[in-house]
Amino acid sequence: MDINKIFLEKANQIKTLNLDNISNEKKLKIYGLYKQATEGDCNINEPFSFRIKEHAKWNAWNENKNMSQDDAKKQYISEVESIIS
């Protein structure tokens, strides 16, 4: 099956899940992989560290720097599947 199709299916699936019981670290991991898969390397300036939420999201995305978008999609799919199972 096409990786892009699976990626989109998982992205739509995760929107329907209740993520209250998922750790913030896992949520940030998924966020960072999604951004890398859809936009590539982080393309925004690092926010000030006192902007905790924005800085955490920036870090999550930037941690995937230089990862190919296909690899990010594969890892994203795996992370989402681990939540669903």
Q: Could you please describe the fold and organization of this structure?
A:
66% of the residues lie in helices and 0% in strands. By secondary structure, the chain is mainly alpha-helical. It has helices spanning 3-15, 24-39, 52-62, 69-84. The model has no long low-confidence stretch (mean pLDDT 95). The chain contains four helices and no strands. Helix 2 (24-39) crosses helix 3. The protein is flat, with a radius of gyration of 13 Å.
Looking at this protein, list some descriptive labels.
85 residues; mainly alpha; 0% strand
Count of helical regions = 4
- Fraction in beta strands: under 5%
Chain oligomer state: single chain
**Global structural class:** mainly alpha
Mean pLDDT: 95
Please trace the helix and strand order, writing H or E for each element. Answer: HHHH
User: Could you give the count of β-strands?
Assistant: 0
**Helix share, percent:** 55-70%
